[in-house]
Amino acid sequence: MQVHFGGHPGDTFPPCALTIGNFDGVHLGHQAILRDLRREADARGLPTALLTFEPHPREFFSRNDPPARLATLRDKLAFLQGTGLVDRVHVQRFNRGFASLSPQAFIDSVLVERLDTLFLLIGDDFRFGSRRTGDFSLLAAEPRFTTRAMPTVELDGARASSTAIREALEAGDMPLAARLLGRPYQLSGRVVHGRKLGRTLGFPTANIHLPHRKPALAGVFAVECLTPDGQRHVGAASLGKNPTIDDAGCYRLEVYLLDYSGDLYGQRLIVRFIHKLRDEEKYDSLDALIAQIHADVAETRRLMPC
């Protein structure tokens, strides 16, 4: 899978079958679009291409209160590659200039001149261009490529969407989030140096860098971690603001790997959230916190035997 960043004037690419969207989480609805795109592309002898945006347009327009992102760009690209359905990904920098393009300018300069789109598959609610004034009818009327809308994908009568997954994660419904994604929800990041308080409490944790300030879930979880060597480890994870010992108000992801000893600093861990144990709480003392961590570890062992 080729990945192209930017979208500079003058860049051109071979003809393609294209889909467009944020593809946050690459959930079941996204996967259905990609399978359909592959079928249409193969029938036309074209490669598949995906146009996505960085940052997420809603992050750009709501900088003070951005929506929780399900996946980093790095993880999104890894999920897309894992489908085996995408030949090229174009990551368009979403800035004021791009946001101000009229719908027709977007069609002319991006879809036709740069990407040479011959077939376009979009979600049935796709909007584009300045003030989101472009819609399916405008694309369908374009004679230079064929446009088709992908119907909504439903699971148990509910729409498979990034919004539905965020709602499931916020509610702590990890099984529902996993069903909508087609896999357990996960975050990844490098292990960084923290305050090293966990080891003084008897539970040394891996502190994982969070690139976005607002995660899609919070609380204490039973997790499984994958290290770069492919080993799986069971752990108990806290994702929150640590109110008992910290008043900075920043989210932190800290993972205690059961029965593990080793140096993880600088390594990239994948953390898969399997069960939510409880919400985050503030305790009156460190002794009370330690007692609760013991209980969390015991519950993790019960739910996920090592």
TrEMBL record:
<dbReference type="GO" id="GO:0005524">
    <property type="term" value="F:ATP binding"/>
</dbReference>
<dbReference type="InterPro" id="IPR002606">
    <property type="entry name" value="Riboflavin_kinase_bac"/>
</dbReference>
<dbReference type="GO" id="GO:0003919">
    <property type="term" value="F:FMN adenylyltransferase activity"/>
</dbReference>
<dbReference type="Pfam" id="PF06574">
    <property type="entry name" value="FAD_syn"/>
</dbReference>
<dbReference type="Pfam" id="PF01687">
    <property type="entry name" value="Flavokinase"/>
</dbReference>
<keyword id="KW-0288">FMN</keyword>
<keyword id="KW-0511">Multifunctional enzyme</keyword>
<keyword id="KW-0418">Kinase</keyword>
<comment type="pathway">
    <text>Cofactor biosynthesis; FAD biosynthesis; FAD from FMN: step 1/1.</text>
</comment>
<keyword id="KW-0067">ATP-binding</keyword>
<keyword id="KW-0547">Nucleotide-binding</keyword>
<comment type="pathway">
    <text>Cofactor biosynthesis; FMN biosynthesis; FMN from riboflavin (ATP route): step 1/1.</text>
</comment>
<dbReference type="GO" id="GO:0008531">
    <property type="term" value="F:riboflavin kinase activity"/>
</dbReference>
<comment type="similarity">
    <text>Belongs to the ribF family.</text>
</comment>
<dbReference type="InterPro" id="IPR014729">
    <property type="entry name" value="Rossmann-like_a/b/a_fold"/>
</dbReference>
<protein>
    <recommendedName>
        <fullName>Riboflavin biosynthesis protein</fullName>
        <ecNumber>2.7.1.26</ecNumber>
        <ecNumber>2.7.7.2</ecNumber>
    </recommendedName>
</protein>
<dbReference type="GO" id="GO:0009231">
    <property type="term" value="P:riboflavin biosynthetic process"/>
</dbReference>
<comment type="function">
    <text>Catalyzes the phosphorylation of riboflavin to FMN followed by the adenylation of FMN to FAD.</text>
</comment>
<dbReference type="InterPro" id="IPR015865">
    <property type="entry name" value="Riboflavin_kinase_bac/euk"/>
</dbReference>
<dbReference type="GO" id="GO:0006747">
    <property type="term" value="P:FAD biosynthetic process"/>
</dbReference>
<keyword id="KW-0274">FAD</keyword>
<dbReference type="InterPro" id="IPR023468">
    <property type="entry name" value="Riboflavin_kinase"/>
</dbReference>
<keyword id="KW-0285">Flavoprotein</keyword>
<keyword id="KW-0808">Transferase</keyword>
<dbReference type="InterPro" id="IPR015864">
    <property type="entry name" value="FAD_synthase"/>
</dbReference>
<dbReference type="InterPro" id="IPR023465">
    <property type="entry name" value="Riboflavin_kinase_dom_sf"/>
</dbReference>
<keyword id="KW-0548">Nucleotidyltransferase</keyword>
<feature type="domain" description="Riboflavin kinase">
    <location>
        <begin position="180"/>
        <end position="305"/>
    </location>
</feature>
<dbReference type="GO" id="GO:0009398">
    <property type="term" value="P:FMN biosynthetic process"/>
</dbReference>
